[in-house]
Specification:
By secondary structure, the chain is an alpha/beta fold. It has helices at about 25-35, 175-185, 225-235, 250-260, 280-285, 320-340, 390-395, and strands at about 25, 45, 60, 70, 75-80, 85-100, 115, 130, 135, 140-145, 155, 165-170, 190-195, 195-205, 205-210, 220, 240-245, 265-270, 290-295, 295-300, 300-310, 310-315, 350, 355-360, 365-370, 375-380, 395-400, 405, 410-415. The chain folds into 4 domains: about 25-40 and about 195-340, Molybdenum Cofactor Biosythetic Enzyme, Chain A (3-Layer(aba) Sandwich), CATH 3.40.980; about 55-65 and about 160-195, no CATH class; about 75-125 and about 135-150, Molybdopterin biosynthesis moea protein, domain 3 (Molybdopterin biosynthesis moeA protein, domain 3, Beta Complex); about 350-420, MoeA, C-terminal, domain IV (Beta-clip, Beta Barrel), CATH 2.40.340.10. The strands form 8 sheets. A 7-stranded mixed β-sheet has the order 1-19-21-22-18-14-17, sandwiched between helices. Strand 9 (about 135) and strand 10 form a beta hairpin.
Length: about 425
């Protein structure tokens, strides 16, 4: 297999919006991202035991059948079915036994039986096994009630997986269960994508980056950077901490240069809008082929997408609530695609609402929510985007449609758990 190959870079204009587009509905924004992005990571070969959480770069093919030979599914007595019939059956026992890892040398004549243990290869002449608990024996003869079904309590070679079968597709994120399957069918090494490296930069004069230090009255502690770094690590990427930059174009540019030199993608938070102090947006406009996507979403809306020295930049809102929602809804599937794992589509389910709300048309809304003991979705007491405690309180999001709607208790709503975004909750 070919290794060490690097896919082509993204085009500098991959984020450009069509002429005349102002507000972009959520589904349209996701469709555009999916169509314009592709894997940007090279590949490497690893031992299967090192593969947990890695993305397969090529399909995995079974090198051996599972099971490799017909074997016993229970402890009991094996024989040829053709020699049995109705009523009580009595078969002479051969000396010896068949056990897992200790095959019986020789064959079992028709009309005879042999002691056999779970996992043992079926000796020649054995195609049926009677469970030990259903037999009586004096050590020379075994007796059991007939008739018995031919092939009962046996496993056929390859009944799970056959040699040469494709067992896992390219793009699969390997799980512990996958590692068991790969090992069982003789796959010792796998070709995987190199881990996606994602740099994180916080900006803003108002931020105190170290929560252990004293913050001035005009400052707030940086909540976004630790949140985003933790998200990336949980998604199986290699997070790179670019730290914090003040509202200074030169310093922000230097950090972006650093990120582009060490990462496959960059997440920034703050300065993504169009205000006087939104230096990230202005800098990306001047040097980074920026496209400010005004997405019809709440919380969120401004999402700056750009290329900086050939590396995609996702400019998230500075508000932590909006930053998390935009990271889950937009950055996660995009980064998954860049990593080689394909587009990740979160799955929600319909539950009764435990709240009331009237929503205007025009924007998709995501409410911080969790399920009650009775399985209803309750939402955080305040929709204020500055209420960071609601992110920790919630175990997922309720997604309300773009259209106007009125929600009353008991009405069906779409609940998307954090786990569906690849994030663990505190429960």
């Amino acid at each position: 297999m070919s290794v060490g190959l690097t896919p082509p870079r993204l085009r500098n204009d991959c984020f450009a919006m069509p002429q005349g587009v102002a507000w972009v509905p959520v589904d349209e924004a996701l469709t555009l991202l999916r169509a314009r992005l592709h894997a940007v990571t090279g590949t490497e070969v690893l031992a299967v035991v090192q593969g947990r959480g890695r993305v397969l770069a090529a399909p995995a093919v079974a090198q051996r059948s599972n099971p490799p030979m017909p074997n016993a599914a229970v402890d009991g007595y094996g024989f040829a079915h053709v020699a049995t019939g109705e009523g009580v059956q009595r078969l002479p026992l051969l000396a010896g036994r068949a056990a897992a890892g200790q095959p019986f040398e020789g064959s079992v004549p028709t009309g005879h039986a042999i002691r056999i243990l779970t996992g043992a290869i079926l000796p020649d002449g054995v195609d049926t096994i009677v469970l030990e608990e259903d037999c009586a024996t004096d050590g020379h003869v075994v007796a059991f009630d007939g008739p018995v079904k031919r092939g009962i309590n046996t496993r056929q070679a390859g009944e799970d997986v056959r040699e040469g079968a494709t067992i896992l597709p390219a793009g699969r994120v390997l799980t512990p269960a996958d590692m068991a399957l790969l090992s069982a069918v003789g796959v010792g090494k796998v070709q995987v994508h190199r881990r996606l490296r994602v740099a994180v930069l916080s900006t803003g004069d108002e931020l105190q980056p170290d929560p252990g230090m004293k913050a001035a009255p005009h400052q707030i502690f940086d909540a976004n950077r630790p949140m985003l770094l933790a998200l990336l690590a949980g998604w199986g990427f290699d997070p790179i901490d670019l730290g914090h930059a003040p509202d200074d174009a030169a310093q922000i540019a230097a950090r972006l240069d650093q990120g582009a030199g060490s990462a496959d993608a960059i997440l920034t938070s703050g300065g993504a809008s169009a205000g006087d102090e939104d230096h990230v947006s202005r800098l990306l406009r001047e040097r980074g082929n920026v496209s400010s996507w005004r997405i019809a979403v709440k919380p969120g809306r401004p999402l700056a997408l750009a290329m900086w020295n050939g590396v995609p930049v996702f400019g998230l809102p500075g508000n932590p609530v909006a930053a998390l929602v935009c990271a889950l809804v937009f950055a996660r599937p995009a980064l998954s695609l860049l990593s080689g794992a394909g587009w990740s589509q979160p799955r929600g389910f319909t539950v009764p609402a435990a709240f009331s709300k009237r929503k205007k048309a025009g924007r998709r809304e995501y409410l911080r929510a969790r399920l009650t003991e009775s399985g209803e979705a309750e939402v955080f007491a305040s929709e204020g985007s500055g209420r960071i405690s609601g992110l920790s309180w919630a175990t997922g999001l309720v997604a309300l449609p773009d259209e106007a709607c009125t929600i009353a208790p008991g009405d069906p709503v779409q609940f998307v758990p954090y786990a569906s975004f690849g994030v663990s909750s505190g429960e």
